[in-house]
Design a protein that fits this description.
There is one protein chain. By secondary structure, this protein is of the alpha/beta class. It has two domains: about 110 residues, 3-Layer(aba) Sandwich (Rossmann fold), CATH 3.40.50.1820; about 120 residues, Rossmann fold. Helices cover about 30% and strands about 25% of the residues. The chain has ten helices and ten strands. It has a ten-stranded mixed sheet, with helices on both faces. The longest helix is centred in the middle third of the chain and has 13 residues. The termini are far apart.
Amino acid sequence: MMLHRKQLTPALACVLAFPVLAQQSQNPSPMVEHTRPHPRQEQPAAPLPGVRVAIPSGTLFVPARLAHHKQMPLFIHFHGAPWLAESAAAERHMAVITVQLGSGSGVYARPFEDRTLFGRMLAAASSAAGATFSPIVLTAWSAGYGAVKTILENPADYARVDKVLLIDGLHTGYEGGKPGPLESKLEEGPLKVFLQFARDAAAGRKSMLITHSEIFPGTFASTTETADWLLDALALKRKPIVRFGPLGTQELSEVREGHFELVGFAGNSAPDHVDQFQSLTDYLKWLH
């Protein structure tokens, strides 16, 4: 049926007057943000006192106050300035292995495809420290999650790990390579081991803390989308909140079940992403 223009409503006439545009591609988040301050910790003028030993793929740091302990908590941190992780270790009275391999999750995942590497790291660290480690915690910011994923996919290493902290860094791809017009369909395979660990944490067998921002990378799934996928699989609901977090960050939501916790933060820019790494010490405290 042909409609004459005088038969059209003003709204419909307006729509028909313009060509239909293809969906625009998703753009990455901005690199700057000026709404609030983004304070940064200062790197110490001299290395913190303690023992540093090179081990396979990383560096062990044992703070001086733990030097004679025969058992100590250990976290292995993937991606980000080693000095900041060492500062967190000193403040939280933990040993740390820092692993800084470069950019992109692939550079962190590939070395641990050697299923002996994680065990060799722990053995070398234990020998160097003259101590055993308990609990053993994996922490990762951003691309560092690639190492955590690959380690946990080895059942022997999964059993060794007591706690996991993912700082704005749970990602996967989009089915078809592009985000959807409404809710995107995610590639679920890379997320399954994190779902398994989250279930164990919710049941009290492990501990897990996940934080995320509102950043949308555009070419792969955001931490908001992966968090939503995880919560849906766990049949858990966010609790909306509005309060300040570490370093003046703004918390928007939280979920707690057993020893599983997920916290959502405001922010869609690179400084918001770095804020979360800068909050490592606080997150370790929350995880504890």
